[in-house]
């Protein structure tokens, strides 16, 4: 059976359950519990950094998500007895209340409605607002990138006001144009590549969300335009401006 | 530069190596050859480093013309191999062996009888510019490999300079050929195994591989497995080998090009030792999954490594 460690830590007035366990012979899943999502996000970000810099033997990758981190090991180089204690140490160190470095604010130009956002009228009807009001709301909301997942560069963003929360389409679209901005429940996301998808599309950006040819970290710009922890604001643009910017990004 | 020309790419041929681990926080999966064992054996046969880039063919093989003399090996799925001389005369070649191809000759790989993917390894390797640390083609985002896409008729793919003569023990070849054709895949309990009501509907039962399977995932048809949490959970990190169960109860086994995060509960994870066999499953194959412990999975892998290391001098 997989090694199983449960670790309790009192934090502020709440007790969070941290769970660190093997989910294959080469992967460890760290769950930071189901407490407040924003606070959990801060801990995910701190844990990610600590784990990466802890020099844990055989560690090859860490995948952050809303409430979990998946740690992948090279089974040839890892030390199965040391991995979990080392990860627990890194995660518990990340419980401090140290001041956060201010997150980056990234502005994303977005052309709302029409062919760029075919589901905008449905969203307006759902929220009982005019289309202009929805655009005003969406573009004045500050979103938080929880993590990048699914496909390269797909940012899972939270922060959408509850009245806009609308479920996915029943029938996913077969082909979504790259740059499409969609919502699913209270999440907002940008499709970086032409893929199938079921999120409701309200706008499109001319920016290239992911470009493997862009230099890699630590030297910016990175292949990924957004990264976990970024704050994001959408800036409404016209179709003409979209075309102009799209030319610049080679799209 | 030395090179080969694609005469016939078959159903899907891509440049693949050992993949690009380490980028999942950007949504980039590890990718690479889905049957790493066949890639390693092929590379050793032609004297390359273990994870040098080769060409991964799917189900139907392909035809490749050599502009320059080279050594080559076809490993992976069983298929008819032949060498077509400059004069058009065809002579049989042997899979899982080192072939000598003269300038102007072509290598022809037929449809695959057993397994889904054959590998063409060439002395010196496929010399494409690595992207994010790997020569692997990642089709969904269109990068890596040869121009970020599948090979097409008329492409000229560059080759590196051959380093050494190569060679590999017959026992290693025999081990690899039997390992990749297994239809009993060993797996360990997955991240949400404890939440499943009745995992016995899954273990040791027979499933058929759906034809909607690709490098992203293998879909299974068979007994319906009841998924916990209504088949939907908050998205979290996923891995190659994860056996997800969506609400419809038909398991999906994630492969090398899998989404880095997902929202279906994970019942089990294929042990690393059987990932090559997973990569060789073809539509209509019947498979079953054997539950093993994490310790057993590590032990099997250690033994596999010993077999492979014995001759890596």
Can you offer a commentary on this structure?
With 251 residues, chain A is α+β, with helices and mostly antiparallel strands. Chain A has two domains: 4-93, Gyrase A, domain 2 (2-Layer Sandwich); 105-248, Cyclophilin-like (Cyclophilin). Chain A is built from five helices and 14 strands. In chain A, the strands form three sheets. In chain A, strands 6-13-10-11-8-7-14 form a seven-stranded mixed beta barrel. Chain A is elongated, with a radius of gyration of 20 Å. Chain A starts with a strand and ends with a helix. Residues 1-14 of chain A have low confidence and may be disordered. In chain B, strands 1, 2, 3, 4, 5, 6, 7, 8 and 9 form a nine-stranded antiparallel β-sheet that branches. Chain B has a seven-stranded mixed beta barrel with strand order 10-17-14-15-12-11-18. Chain B has four helices and 18 strands. Chain B starts with a strand and ends with a helix. The mean pLDDT of chain B is 96. Chain B is of the alpha+beta class. Chain B has helices at residues 36-45, 170-179, 275-279, 294-309, and strands at 3-8, 13-16, 54-58, 62-66, 70-84, 90-93, 99-101, 106-122, 156-158, 184-189, 207-209, 217-221, 236-237, 242-244, 252-254, 261-262, 266-270, 286-291. Chain B folds into two domains: 3-179, no CATH class; 184-309, Beta Barrel (Cyclophilin), CATH 2.40.100.10. At the A-B interface, strand 4 and strand 5 of A face strand 13, strand 16 and helix 4 of B.
In quaternary terms, these chains amount to heterodimer
Count the E strands of chain B.
Answer: 18
Please outline the major beta sheet of chain A.
7 strands, mixed, barrel
Instruction: Supply Rg of chain A.
Output: 20 Å
Give me the Rg of chain B, rounded: 20 Å
Order of H and E elements of chain A: EEEHEEHEHHEEEEEEEEH
Number-wise, the strands of chain A total 14
The CATH topology of the largest domain in chain A is given as Cyclophilin
As a percent range, the share of strand residues of chain A is 25-35%
What is the first-to-last residue Cα distance of chain A?
Answer: 50 Å
Order of helices and strands of chain B: EEHEEEEEEEHEEEEEEEEHEH
Helix content of chain B: 10-25%
CATH H-level superfamily of the largest domain in chain A = Cyclophilin-like
Overall, the morphology of chain B is globular
Counted up, domains of chain A total 2
Count of helix runs of chain B? 4
Q: What do the pLDDT scores of chain A average to?
A: 88
| Parts with pLDDT < 50 across at least 5 consecutive residues of chain B | none
Q: Strand percentage of chain B, roughly?
A: 25-35%
- Using CB atoms under 8 Å apart, which protein chain pair has the greatest interface? A-B, 48 and 44 residues
Can you give the mean pLDDT of chain B?
96
